[in-house]
């Protein structure tokens, strides 16, 4: 994992003092509310329905145990004892006091963390594959490039006031686990015919009110041109993106309006001017940053373990968890291990201070002291020995972190919704509970296989309902919460936007409606077929027909 | 209105004018003037007859092609920030520097303390701040951060070249 040097540390320390002064000026009435708004947003602070919300950056999802313990301490000391992992792999505190935020930022800086650019119309946290560096199918570990982008984009003087927020995601290989096609810029690490490793670049993807799948703007970009090309795209966007309507201000609208070919021409013309400037990345710098992400010293003896097989044969609950919540590691004798943050009847992505401490201990003891957050709001211990899995499972299970539901219907991605968020049109948490009650039988849920369910409380789509195999969108109808259901979305390598199934359903009918959708799936499914594949094969009509059939 | 050059408040010899100056009751003031681009284009000939210097003010809505092709014509180019959130001016300044513009690049409009350092980094050589927003402590803003990761238009080199 990346470790700060003096330059990094000084930057976050100075930033804390700068924000302390900004807060002081605001509280003293010297800084107008509107100006402070833009500044606090650039430090991750929103004002929500009940209290301010502070969003802490988890750079490309990486956290170490020291940082997790600090986050636990902050949750205990400055908040109500819990925190929330987001779909941008960041961490939110929901109840900090505005005047204590500078102190919280100082605590964060002491463990090489910050909240810089976690909100506001600037370049946000770059996200990537939660299996970076430990999965066999990747071409190269994307994290060094994420870190290089983090540094380049942090406090970028030209791009702090873009037309709208700007999100970049990188996939390390052919399998897209970072939803890159629904980002402002998506980067895919690819190998060209000459065997050189570089990036395929997509632009103009995004969700929110106008969901769009990104389009290819460049089939191959050399590594050393990464920053100059990003800068060219964002400069063209900064100068040409719409400023008159914040709902039409994302880059996707500009790319759509111009057409990707015309947009590419502008970018290429700009890029020609800067590609041989200071922005050209020295290969030595890429190597330097790569050195922070070299593989751990894995224990060769781990591959000879036989205890795992014995435990799997003996303990059915353990086996269920193992099959659902762990993934093959590129090193024999190790597993990539999920920590499920989707327990029964509790908010998705929430962790308590005690759980954070416990996860930190597990990371130290069993996974080289590191934890990753996923864009589906779970956590990952990336390097657990087979022989340790049983123990890890037992500890996780005691703390309600081992629900064997990763990738299933109850592994829902859910925003805080109308209970917390000022933007929401409808509540989400109660609906998630309703669905959990309906689909409580885990054997049944497992039999349904991989199924991605995403629910957002408004059209801003923070929970990416457009790319759920099943998406649920909360809408307001004359003061009541109603829910629109979409089918067929996907944020993987075959990214697609879900289509609306039909008229929205009342809040007490959501789980029953889902049940009907699932019944059609079970009825029509080929053996072991995934929901999304059945949907593609049979189309919307059978679902629509059955769900909206008049009761008789 | 206070004008900052080299992080110090200096005397300002320029007057920014608007369309009132060209109306029937109005009059274009004597001395050096800054004229918004649209007005400048409209009144090019009468302005060319003046003895004093004439500069232009541009913003993100202007087509800058003509300006970039005739840079040597302008002793000063003001870039307007019509609203706090409008960041186009940062990119425009960089384009001027890249085109080797040698005159003064001045920021005008909605400018608070918290963007002064960014403006300097993007190539502004003068920053005009409205009376109600200006406070002498604002000048501390230039010193708040002592290092940056990325290169821009100032002398800071990208961290990987440092």
Which key features would you list for this structure?
heterodimer; A: 552 residues; alpha+beta; Sulfite Reductase Hemoprotein, domain 2; Sulfite Reductase Hemoprotein, domain 1; 4 domains; five-stranded antiparallel β-sheet; B: alpha/beta; eight-stranded mixed β-sheet; 5 helices; globular
3D structure, described in words:
The complex is a heterodimer of chains A (552) and B (162). By secondary structure, chain A is α+β, with helices and mostly antiparallel strands. Chain A has 4 domains: 6-109, Sulfite Reductase Hemoprotein, domain 2, CATH 3.90.480.20; 134-290, 2-Layer Sandwich (Sulfite Reductase Hemoprotein, domain 1), CATH 3.30.413.10; 300-398, Sulfite Reductase Hemoprotein, domain 2 (Alpha-Beta Complex); 413-547, Sulfite Reductase Hemoprotein, domain 1 (2-Layer Sandwich). In chain A, 36% of the residues lie in helices and 17% in strands. Chain A contains 18 helices and 21 strands. Chain A has helices spanning 6-27, 33-41, 65-78, 101-109, 143-153, 226-240, 251-258, 260-274, 283-290, 307-314, 316-325, 353-366, 389-398, 429-438, 442-448, 510-524, 531-538, 541-547; strands at 45-47, 52-56, 62-64, 82-85, 91-93, 127-128, 168-171, 185-191, 197-203, 215-222, 326-328, 334-339, 350-352, 370-373, 379-385, 413-414, 453-456, 470-477, 480-487, 499-500, 505-506. In chain A, the strands form 4 sheets. In chain A, strands 16, 17, 18, 19, 20 and 21 form a 6-stranded mixed sheet that branches. In chain A, strands 1-2-5-4-13 form a 5-stranded antiparallel sheet. In chain A, strands 3-14-15-12-11 form a 5-stranded antiparallel sheet. In chain A, a hairpin with a 2-residue loop joins strand 18 and strand 19. In chain A, helix 10 (307-314) packs across helix 11 (316-325). Chain A is globular and about 65 Å long. Chain A starts with 5 loop residues before the first helix and ends in a 5-residue tail after the last helix. The relative contact order of chain A is 0.09. The mean pLDDT of chain A is 95. Chain B has 162 residues and is an alpha/beta fold. Chain B has a single domain, classed as TIM Barrel, CATH 3.20.20. Chain B contains 5 helices and 8 strands, in the order ββββααβαβαβαβ. Chain B has an 8-stranded mixed sheet. In chain B, strand 6 (76-81), helix 4 and strand 7 (104-109) form a beta-alpha-beta unit. Chain B is globular and about 55 Å long. The termini of chain B are far apart. In chain B, 36% of the residues are buried.
